[in-house]
Amino acid sequence: MKKQTLLALGFSALFIAVSADPVMAYVLLSPRRRWASTPVTVRVYNVGNSTITDGSGGVNAVVSAIRAWGIISSSTTSSPAVRGSAPATIMLNTNGGLCTGNCLAATLTGYYTSQAGDDRIYDADVYTNTSVQLYSSGESGCSAEYDINGIMTHEVGHVIGIGHSNVSGATMYPSISSCNTSARSLSSDDIAARDDLY
Ligand SMILES: [Zn+2]
User: How far is CA 145 from the centre of its chain?
Assistant: First the structure.
């Protein structure tokens, strides 16, 4: 099964597949960073993805899906992302010049201000590889497509300050196969990461 990568920019995480005694746990973005308060506002730009045929190009599905984190205030917006300015915005219709090839989606997480031990995020923006075939919970059936609900639940994990986990099945695992919807539901590892920060 083909796997595609879910990318976060502004940090690097290397996953070693074979390890004698792997540490099975989440990783927070480094340096540690969080939003000043919750709920974190995340908007979905209302121009959808042309490969998603659920009537809104995945926009409505993503607005609902990202609430899985429990600390997100989500809605649509007619304003595209402005890098470095709140609110955090998800773009389904452009790769932002960032996300090509095996990348499914990319989150810019580099907008934060230094504060000893606990930096403050003030913006994060998400872009989508528009060359990939995607589908949403609003569609029935899947054939070699990638689940936008799970992809954006993963990316919003980056938005709130979480890096990649090496726990297979966690939403924050760095890659996902086609027609796999497991990233829609948070694992206990994802919840532990959230609760570490908020
Ligand atoms: Zn990622």
Answer: 17
User: What is the model's pLDDT at position 3?
Assistant: 58
Q: pLDDT, tens digit, for every residue of 18-59?
A: 344 445 689 999 889 999 999 999 999 999 999 999 999 999
Q: Is 128 exposed, middle or buried (0-12, 13-18, 19+ CB in 10 A)?
A: buried
The C-alpha angle 172, 33, 103, rounded to 5 degrees, equals 35
Element (H, E) at 169: none
CA distance 102 to 47: 23
- Tell me how far apart the 2 most distant CA atoms of the chain are, in Å: 50
**Contact, 22 vs 55, CB < 8 A?**
no
Domains along the chain?
27-197 (3.40.390.10)
How many whole angstroms from 171 Cα to the centroid of ligand 1? 9
Q: Pull the structure tokens for residue 153.
A: 């639940």
CA of 140 from ligand 1 middle (Å) equals 26
In this prediction, the residues of the chain whose per-residue pLDDT falls under 50 are 1, 10-22
Tell me which residues have their CB within 5 A of the ion that is ligand 1.
Answer: 6, 8
- What is the CA(101)–ligand 1 centre distance, in A? 15
> What's the confidence (pLDDT) of residue 19?
40
Whole-prediction pTM value?
0.90
